[in-house]
Amino acid sequence: MKVCVVGQGGREHAFATTLGRTAEVVVTPGNPGIPASTGTPPTEIDADLYVIGPEGPLADGLADRLRADGRLVFGPGADGAALEGSKAWMKEVVSAAGVPTAAYATFNDEPEQHRAAHAYLETLYPPYVIKTSGLAAGKGVLVTEELAEAHADVDAKLDGTAFGDAGRRIVIEEGLRGPEVSLFALCDGRRAVLLPTAVRDHKRIGDGDTGPNTGGMGCVSPLADVDRAACKELAAMAFEPTLAELTQRGVDYRGVLYAGFMLTPAGPRLLEFNVRFGDPEAQVTLPRIENDLAGLLASAAAGELTDEVVVSDDAMVCVVCAAAGYPVAPRTGDVIEGLQRAREVPGVTVLCAGVAEVDGRASPGGTLVTGGGRVVNVCGRGADVATARDRAYEAVRCISWPGMTYRTDIAAAETLLVAGDR
Ligand code: AMP
Ligand code: GLY
Fold first, then answer.
1. Which of 139, 218, 353, 376 fits a 20 to 30 Å CA distance from 287?
2. Across 77-90, average pLDDT
């Protein structure tokens, strides 16, 4: 089978590596650190299966265009992708499906609604949560203890100054507290089949969850506090009713559903749905799938998912190495050293995300430079989280470039949880 993966980050590199076990893979546009990359657009590539990584092309209807041309596609059409592209619609769908979620209200930029947004905020308790309804590259959510900051954020979003049109509609939510967990399910339009393993991302730039939010600085799976039975309960609470609700609304959802939950003292609450694999969550999940991934995604795309997904008991930890200045203004062009040495650490995979070639050209020694915010993803695998974590950090220490930053506490809490359970 020939598979065309659409996207250019570490998640797509993980797709290419795992799909490559059983299929021929091409990645478009990919990046200079992903061997099978091509500049040919997906519509001009002849493949048996198309796997669309990021939300942007899904929301733009790439899956619809490919399907209209008779191709087999893993990824929802624009209708299903609205689950991520419109948080207001997502909240309506999950509420109708009866999925426990934070109380909320939506507002647009009409003066009366703008005033009502401020009035609604006054009825809430901290933390205050204000989200752009539209896509904002993972940065559209403010969570703050300060009411004044929340009011200012409502203005910045609704005025269009903070996020353009994506912020002219907002969702204000009840602020919840508790650990977070992500789960994935493959959907074939009728069935949602769980990937029975929980993942935890580390979203803030700094150790101890400090500083601004990022696309994700690293993650770990599985989790000591969310075992397989808990995964199944969360799946039954969220995936199955949501897929049924989508079907009832005429949405034939074929792709992955990515659910983010908060485990609150009052029980789990769904925070968000995304319509693609998480990045870097995919990096610690896809390689542990024991089924033939290409066959699995093809059967989901064809509407005939029959197999259960089997995930290895191994643990994986991914540490994201980011460019100087990330997430505000990542610096590009810094020469990356040590990738080969890092790849020689046992149990380690190094995936390329925001990398570029020197002066935009392939250089003789294959030198890569920083070309984006999250530059490389260093993934360690082992029999337990502590081993996976040690391997990942050993490899991270082999890599360097001027201003390289990374968190030193990825999966640290999970290591303690496991130790504490013993
Ligand atoms: P989202 O993109 O909706 O997942 O939001 C991004 C992050 O904001 C989540 O990972 C949480 O850390 C936080 N967040 C979202 N919704 C809430 C909420 N209702 N209460 C507290 N924190 C939230
Ligand atoms: N790592 C978070 C995301 O992919 O949305």
1. 139
2. 94
